[in-house]
Amino acid sequence: MRRFLFTLILASITAGYALRAQETYIFAERDTCSLYMDIFRPSEGAQTTFGDIQKPTIMYVFGGGFLMGQRADDFTRKWFKLLNDDGYAVVTIDYRLGMKGYKVGKGLIGAFKSVDRFKLSQQVGVEDVFSAVSYLAKYEDRLGIDTDNLVLAGSSAGAIITLASVYDIAHGKTEGLPDGFTFKGAISFAGAIISTNGAPSFDTPPCPMLLFHGTADQAVAYRHLGFMGKGLWGSDFIAQKLDKKGYPHCIYRFKDRTHDVAAYHVALWSLEKAFLENCVMSGNVKRIDAIVDDASLPSWGAISMGDIYK
Hints:
The chain has one domain: 3-Layer(aba) Sandwich (Rossmann fold). The chain has nine helices and 14 strands. The chain has helices at residues 2-10, 74-85, 107-113, 115-138, 140-143, 157-170, 235-245, 269-281, 305-308; strands at residues 23-29, 34-40, 49-50, 53-54, 57-61, 90-93, 150-155, 185-189, 192-195, 209-214, 224-227, 230-234, 249-254, 287-292. A nine-stranded mixed beta sheet has the order 1-2-6-5-7-8-10-13-14, with helices on both faces. A three-stranded antiparallel beta sheet has the order 9-12-11. The longest helix is centred in the middle third of the chain and has 24 residues, at 115-138. The protein is globular, with a radius of gyration of 18 Å. The chain starts with a helix and ends with a helix.
């Protein structure tokens, strides 16, 4: 039942939604699979600039615990439609599922023993994100996607990959990327950074980040989960570190909410839009730290890491 709830959060809750990608491409060939991307173009007549500024393309990384998920399903297509109608192109990508077929032991001890595999799953996801960016850059003239104007967004495992991608770039780990590349911004729906060598540090500024997280999330740590320098460092930890450095970021802490927040794409559109317009395009240096207690937001029931990796 718990595994079903996790699948429900990440699957369609708007059955029959019909938005289709205009184009699909293979952006990388791996030993085990081909990796595809879909491009969803702005809707006809949509305003593709904000003032005189071209709106960025949103690159989306799906969730699913590194063991399941799709680059586009009915639920996320509804969100893509919101973005398209507001003038944003969307590129949604595959990545290798590093936990698929891997047996995680029971409880926190089992998860801790598997932390190296989780870290590997995060890292191959980052490599696949970088390959997708490189593909877009290589074919920029044909595809019409400006790789100097990309915002990376992700949910759950995809949010972990998103935050790790931004973190690696800020620390000069840019193999596979065009020279000088950085994302214009990042949006994380219930994400964290997996580390096996201590807490993440932010000695150089990353791109502006928008962090959404439930304070009672038992699937992806809101604060920190682990010990001996290994584990997940969640949105609360990341925001505190960014705040101490004065780096631009926005965090919305959903009081007593669980991993539901990983599926709040549509519900939080107004906050996403404000971030894109004010922090990404206008370049305003903002630090927002808000606690949200909103009973109208949807809930699909609490899940834990153990529920996902049964």
